[in-house]
Amino acid sequence: MTQMMFRPETDTRPQVVSTITIPEQADAAHHVDVTVSEPEQPADHAGEHLLLVASSGGHLAQLLALRSWWQEFPRTWVTFDTEDARSQLAGEDIVFAKHPTTRNVKNLLRNSVIAAKLMRDVRPTMIVSTGAAVAFPFFLYAKGMHVPTVYLEVFDRVDSRTLTGRLCRPLASEFLVQWEQQRALYKGSRVIGTLL
């Protein structure tokens, strides 16, 4: 098991430390068990707020697979305004990003404005994303604001790097992959096994 400690460096709020425990290898069934512990924080996770960022569809499905980890935390979702996203996130705090995002400069700029506003208003203590391009402006702002980020590369791209993976790798506090073959594509990444 690997434990990662995230400590926001330039935050005026009370210091919050998040510990994420990630297995070094997936078990035989390729199941990943990600747990979070807060040894010095009350059970209500006071002062913490997750920003969960993912395109709708498969990217969102992979982030939803981590429910046992994020369900205990106050959170805001960023995804696209689609029927499946509305259905899967019913009752959640959702901010809809602009799409399409793949190689779309106009929507990149629009999503950068959304990211700046959310970073200011929500003040997340951690950003977690499974991509795709919607993640990039959030990771960029998070890097500048010293907010820890976790990027989980998609499971269906094994033999080459994704554009978003290439952009977010230098910005991510932790970069996770789901296959051993992906680890060779992203220096310093960790294999956690498949989520779906």
TrEMBL record:
- One Pfam family, please name it: Alg14
- One MF annotation (Gene Ontology) recorded for this entry: N-acetylglucosaminyldiphosphodolichol N-acetylglucosaminyltransferase activity
State the superkingdom. Answer: Bacteria
Q: A Gene Ontology biological process annotation? A: dolichol-linked oligosaccharide biosynthetic process
Q: Which UniProt keywords apply?
A: Endoplasmic reticulum, Membrane, Transmembrane, Transmembrane helix
The entry's protein name is Oligosaccharide biosynthesis protein Alg14
What membrane topology term does the record carry? Single-pass membrane protein
Localization terms from the record? Endoplasmic reticulum membrane
What InterPro entries would the database entry show?
A: Oligosacch_biosynth_Alg14
